[in-house]
Amino acid sequence: MNKERHLVVISGPSGCGKDTVVKYLRKVHPEIEVSVSATTRAPRSGEKEGVDYYYMSRAQFEDKVKNGEILEYAQYDKNFYGTPKSEVDRRIENGITVVLVIEVEGAGNIRRLYPDCNTIFVRPPSYEELESRLRGRGTETEESIRRRMARAVEEMEYAVDYNSVVVNDTVESCAEEIYELICKGLQK
Ligand code: 5GP
Questions:
Q1: Residues lower than pLDDT 70 in the chain
Q2: Which residues lie below 8 Å from residue 163, measured CB to CB, with a gap of 6+?
Q3: 13 Cβ closer than 6 Å to some ligand 1 atom
């Protein structure tokens, strides 16, 4: 079996609920691990260092990129986000399934590095629902919501580049669908 199938990339517009779905997936299937990204964004209330992200300054992030410690990175809503190499290689070498929850540009770069990785795009049921989820989160400014909604329209066009597309109607059903796609991917 190709080891790259253990690498699962999940994307979807901000607010589509992908992080909640992946958290639930981990709870039900704890053998699946999730990569923790580096970011220059400030922590939201309740987020934890090393659990949600590795938070760092722009200079620290740039140093990591320069030292070759970052597999892929992208700018999103004025901040940088990147996947540390250490989160991925060791796991797929050892046959551990690892999920990257990243935006579309980074997903394209991962696909170039690992052409056989399993890519899944999560769609919200509608734009109205997406906006209401973003607002309901209560963590973004009006300006950030506007930028994230504009980016969502662009991101949705990338869905065709993914191996599979799932709709996040309910967290449980979406997580189960993703689990089945991961298992199917591992059989290839
Ligand atoms: P948020 O600020 O909402 O946590 O994340 C903003 C966007 O950045 C989301 O689409 C999220 O999936 C994406 N993201 C998180 N980590 C990474 C990463 O390591 N690389 C890339 N390319 N995108 C990431």
A1: 1
A2: 118, 119, 120, 181, 185
A3: no
